[in-house]
Automatic annotation (TrEMBL), chain A:
The chain crosses the membrane at residues 34-57, 63-80, 101-125, 137-166, 173-196, 225-249, 293-313, 319-343, 367-387, 393-421, 446-467, 473-492, 532-551, 571-592. This is ABC-2 type transport system permease protein. It comes from Nonomuraea wenchangensis. Keywords: Membrane, Transmembrane, Transmembrane helix.
UniProtKB/TrEMBL annotation, chain B:
InterPro entries: AAA+_ATPase, ABC_transporter-like_ATP-bd, P-loop_NTPase. It comes from Nonomuraea wenchangensis. This is ABC-2 type transport system ATP-binding protein. CDD domains: ABC_DR_subfamily_A. PANTHER family: ABC TRANSPORTER RELATED, ABC TRANSPORTER, ATP-BINDING PROTEIN. Belongs to the ABC transporter superfamily. It comes from the Bacteria.
Amino acid sequence: MAHLVTPGPAALAQHMVRMRLALMRNSLRGDNASNLYTGVSLGLILAFGTIAVAVLWPAYLPITLAVWLSGWIFGPIFIGGGNEALRPEYFSMLPATPGRIAMALLAGAFAGPAPVVNLVALLSLPVYGWRFGPAGVLIGLVAAVATLVTMVMVSRVIVALIGLFVRSRATAAAVGILTGTAIGLCSNGWALLVALGGSDTAVWSEVLVRALPSGWGVAAVEASWPLALAILAGNAGVIALLLAAWSALLSRRVVSAARGGVPPRRGTPRPFPATSGARVAAAKELRAWWRDLVRIQLLATAFAYAVVTPLLLVTIDVWVMFPFAGLIAIVMAAASSANLYGADGTALWLTLMTPGAERADVRGRQLAWFLIVGPAAVALSLAGTFVSGETWAWPWVLGLLPALLGGGAGVIVLLAVTSLVPGTDPHKRGGNPLSTGADETAETSLAWLVLVAVPATALPTAGAILLDPWAGIATGVLTGVLCAWGFGRIAYRRLESHGIELLNLMKHGPAPKADKPTTADLPIQHRIGVTVCYTIAWLPLFPQGLVPMVMKIIGIQDRSWFLALHLPPIWQWPTIIFMIALGLLMYGYAVLIPMRLSSSSSAATTR
Amino acid sequence: MPTHQEPALRTTGLRKAFGEHVAVDDIDLTVPAGSFYGLVGPNGAGKTTTLAMAVGLLRPDAGSAEIFGVDVWRDTVRAKGLIGVLPDGNAMPERLTGREVLTYLGLLRGLQPDVVAERTEELLQILELDSAERTLVIEYSTGMRKKIGLAVALLHAPRLLVLDEPFEAVDPVSAATIRTILRRFAANGGSVIISSHVMALVEQLCDHVGVISDGRVVAAGPLADVRGSGTLEDAFIDLVGARAGGTEGLAWLTS
């Protein structure tokens, strides 16, 4: 027998990088390619923005870099484990130490677009260092590389920790609560900053952003030579620690057999209810919710966000959001439930092979979602309105509650069958219990679509409340029932006619038709335009349009960062209307341009 | 009105292409009612694709499929009532236990609760899945997945069973049980189609065989006609134009 020589660390890392690049090359088709191109263009815009911050507003560089770090930390949690193109399981039989494999996997992790884009952003450090002379540039360069490695390592360790420790409902919910809180802080954390000492850059916040791993580079650049070297050496030490932790976590992961995010159970499950149709499908679905850590985590995220956001505003004594916590929870829970069929994978075949089961399945899923989200949302709404003492909010809460619940129950099944994002079948997923293997970009856009669509179903109710508070409640109940019934009906009809196509989308991926255009075939300027619009259209629409509108209607004086409210009164309404129109226009452009492309080409290819 | 004289399955001109690759090219198959039909072919020959189109799980580019005279694509609901299917590699309601899967699907099909409970109990016992009472399907082994899939196919007592690789990864004892169940089903007038790579098994079980290669039917008919005087394996290797390799190369493995 020939003697086997394991490749050395450098060779192993080189193979890993090649494999990662080969995987990326092979997946660069259709929408994947367009997502990558647009993601990279957008990332580069942000990266050059960061360099611009270093040149023009250096005081804000540490906080900008902290945002990049938070992306590395919360990105993988939010999108379910991050992109694990190279799964550690693939290499578990290589005759090499875990440490060596971890090093090689790390090298593979850098062979992607995200670290490259991030490195460009970190070039802001040597740019900032220029202010301190050539030595500053040199330290900045070293710090840029060290910070990049630290950020990627932190991200990997967090993914590994989740993969290993999220094995129970409690830990899944904890991760969900953490994520929900983080999203809440990202969107409304400014309130906390205001409460803690005004918007001026207080000393403690200066220290905080430099104490974070993202700020060590800035600290090193600003420090004297010996201190700078000490900071860089400390950073290297942290990297070594992270690497050791990661390799330990990886070697535990590949030998732990748990899969599919199943929480531990005790005892024999309760017997299935002896019923039929939608109710038996709902019983199946309720069990799926209770026994799937991904769903538990997403639900916890939704409710945590809904509770944290109003609480943050309470710190500056704004109680206006408090009654609406339950409503926010409904919309967020709908957004995290939008890929119901994609999450179950090819199990759809059984629904399709059972005569007449499509209707029962759709109605059952609606019923289960309603039972899971409804009671908690109602309790949260009633308690929130009562505690806040905002009596004016009662008609809004009571009217919008049924409207949104029904709208949510309708929209999620409609989108689940019309915009399904295929993932990996649950029984074939890897060692990360929170990853569904679906294309994260597509899943995120689906969630955004729900965030727009569900509130839209409540617009008639909002209009009715403005006319007559109590007519709003009747309208809310009516539109809620109509949405749940009507959208559900469209959904199961669609499942009956197109279920086979959905099944094969999940089984074989999108049909490889050479003449069917994808977003990737859009001219580059449209491709970038569509992505940019999808990404930032919420800014004018929600925080700069709808929120100041509500505040003006209700008569809240706090102007915070709402542009319209800082303008002379005569310009306020036009600005608000302009912002809403701009947001809607951007969403319209982002949705319609790809649709026009596919319809024009399908007309051209129809024989 | 379908009668017992109609073939259990008849496909006419079935065709399916995935991009440039033509997986199934103009397949005509007739499975007589009451027969035990074996569909054999090399890896990638198009067996799974053919069966998926025949039962209504994959839309063909061209051609049609009838089950006891009922068109699968025009009268879908009635056709689905006649067949029990075990596809290869599809997911199940993964977060239910085996008993829950059978109960759920039985109730969903509109069977009476007591009938569902009785059949579920029997199927779990016979297929030796009753010990895994607390195990969710997602935690099942490959062989257990096959067995619960088979139980799902049998649950509503269909007239035609279409089973894609039913013996793959199943242990010898369970395989013997499944063989006995299928033989009893066929002996009592049921029709069975299985796909398999294992020629000896097909020879032992089936009375009719269809050989598919490169998406085309290269031979079909009663077992005796297809295999001629030799074994099915010899006839198969002859038909698909392959030769058994393995004697050349790999010098490093034996040195």
